[in-house]
Amino acid sequence: MKSEIKIKVLNIDEGDDTIFFQGFFSNGFCSTTLEFYGYSDEFQNFANNLTEFPKSTKDKATYELGEKGDKWAYYLLIEAYCIEVNGRSALKIEATNNGTGHSHHESKFELESEQASLNRLGNRLKNWNPLEEKLFEWEPNE
C-alpha cells in the first residue's frame, strides 16, 4: 500500500449540480474510504490555502465537511500542518461514516509529506474540475 489520495466522481445531480464523491486516503499503513456530497468548487478554499502553506510553523490548511453525530451522515477532515520547523509536514485525515452497526466506521491517521508536495496538491486541486475529470489522484512524493 502506498501513501495517496484519490477522489472519484461517482455521480452528478444535473438538477442542482451536486456531486457525489468517493474519497480514498492512505498513508501506506492505514487507509479509509468515504462517500460524500459537494460541488465542483468543493475544494477551492482548501486548495488556495495549501498553495501558500505554511505561512508559519503554526499554520494549518483545513478542509472540513459535515460533523460527527446524528446531524450529518459523515464527517471529513483533511488538515495540513507542520510537524517540525525543518519542513516536515503532514495531512491529518479524519473520516467518519455516522451510520449505525456495520455501516459505521471511523478512521484517523496522518499522511506525512514535504511542504512543496502539499503546495503541489493545492495547485492540482485548484485546477481540478470534477465536472470534466472524474478522478483526482495525488501521491505525496510525486
CATH fold name, please?
Secreted effector protein pipB2 fold
Mean pLDDT: 94
- Report the uncertain regions: none
Total domains: 1
Query: Any idea of the CATH class?
Result: Alpha Beta
Q: How many β-strand runs? A: 8
Lateral arrangement of strands in the main beta sheet: 3-2-1-8
Measure the end-to-end span.
Answer: 16 Å
Please identify the structural class as seen in this structure. mainly beta
- Measured by DSSP, the beta-strand proportion falls in over 45%
Secondary-structure element order, N to C: EEEHEEEEHE
The major sheet is characterized as: 4 strands, antiparallel
Radius of gyration: 15 Å
Helical stretch count? 2
Describe the global form: globular
Helix content: 10-25%
CATH architecture: 2-Layer Sandwich
How would you explain this protein's 3D organization?
This protein is 15% helix and 50% strand. With 142 residues, the chain is mostly beta strands. It has one domain (3-138): Secreted effector protein pipB2 fold (2-Layer Sandwich). The chain has a 4-stranded antiparallel sheet with strand order 3-2-1-8, covered by helices on one side. A 4-stranded antiparallel sheet has the order 4-5-6-7. A hairpin with a 7-residue loop joins β4 and β5 (74-82). It starts with a strand and ends with a strand.
